[in-house]
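User: Can you recover a sequence for this backbone? Please restate the input before giving your answer.

Assistant: Of course. Working from this structure:
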């Protein structure tokens, strides 16, 4: 059996470390592994592969890979792979949302704490060697605590469920919105469908952890933002295409007519790691938005990424060889 690892990319943060591949080779002596480094070579070996471990299953590879039975994606989102041909091909598609969830949640919480506790201002004072205690005291009405918040989480996958658990421990009241009325272990309430109109006015913080599907494109639009309570904070950590950025900017107080930020927005702020267009264009008004923190789609970066990734792939490869069900299987018809 041939396993092709198409995981050699330009930046080492996203390229499989050779020692981890060597460990796999030692653990599975009956399996042939090929670590692809050249596009031409990938085409040749993909045509023979039973298993491919990569980032995205592209249509031209799918057309060649007549022996392919299982594709494992290192990414959380698999929209680029879960096209119609895969859904009806008999190929099993698995993803790595469970790998990315721990650090993505920590990154988001760090951004939120920075906004809620006004930490960037303290950093400015430190750079100026300024003891800004009185200035910070003056912010006392603006500071926020998770323990006093009602939080609405949209999307209850690996990231959303972990967020729910952590926020409950911090004392937040957690509400979850999901496609189907299913239990959510760490939520105080679950909403679906039109329940969004009841849920959003209660939320002090709204977290967008939706997967990218045809149903979620532009989900957070003018109407949805209009149902949020005055002063609520919006956080986006899933996929940029799920948020209408023009609608978000209007909710934050951006005047398209005057081309500047006004004070008539009803949202109290936002933390954003994903965007409709990446890189975020230099001319985007979001760069200068008050009470907005931006990170350039880096929430999943971690020195532990590849260790968790290889642990998941190793477990699944053992399942595969034993004819057992795989973990983290994607429903290609749904998109996650």
């Amino acid at each position: 059996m041939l396993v092709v690892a198409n995981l050699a990319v330009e930046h080492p943060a996203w390229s499989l470390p050779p020692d981890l591949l060597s460990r796999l080779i030692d653990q599975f002596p009956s399996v042939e592994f090929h670590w692809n480094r050249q596009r031409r070579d990938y085409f040749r070996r993909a045509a023979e592969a039973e298993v491919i471990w990569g980032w995205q299953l592209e249509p031209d590879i799918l057309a060649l890979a007549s022996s392919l039975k299982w594709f494992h994606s290192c990414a959380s989102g698999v929209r680029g792979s879960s096209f119609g041909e895969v859904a009806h091909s008999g190929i099993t598609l698995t993803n790595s949302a469970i790998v990315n969830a721990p650090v993505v949640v920590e990154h988001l919480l760090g951004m939120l704490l920075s906004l809620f506790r006004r930490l960037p201002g303290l950093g400015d004072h430190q750079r100026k060697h300024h003891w800004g205690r009185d200035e910070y005291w003056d912010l006392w009405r603006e500071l926020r605590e998770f323990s006093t918040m009602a939080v609405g989480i949209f999307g209850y996958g690996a990231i959303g469920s972990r967020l729910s658990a952590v926020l409950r421990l911090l004392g937040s009241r957690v509400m979850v919105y999901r496609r189907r009325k299913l239990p959510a272990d760490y939520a105080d309430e679950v909403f679906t469908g039109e329940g969004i109109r009841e849920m959003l006015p209660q939320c002090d913080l709204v977290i967008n952890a939706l997967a990218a599907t045809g149903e979620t494109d532009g989900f957070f639009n003018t109407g949805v933002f209009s149902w949020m309570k005055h002063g609520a904070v919006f956080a986006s950590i899933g996929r940029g295409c799920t948020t209408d950025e023009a609608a978000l900017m209007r909710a934050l107080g951006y005047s398209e007519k005057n081309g500047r930020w006004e004070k008539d927005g009803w949202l109290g702020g936002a933390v954003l790691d994903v965007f409709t267009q990446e890189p975020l264009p230099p001319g985007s008004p979001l760069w200068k938005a008050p009470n907005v923190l931006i990170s350039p789609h880096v929430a999943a970066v971690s020195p532990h990424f590849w260790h968790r990734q290889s642990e998941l792939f190793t477990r699944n490869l053992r399942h595969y060889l034993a004819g057992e069900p795989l973990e983290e299987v994607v429903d290609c018809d749904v998109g996650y």
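That completes the design. Residues 2-98+303-321 form a domain with the Rossmann fold fold (CATH 3.40.50.720).
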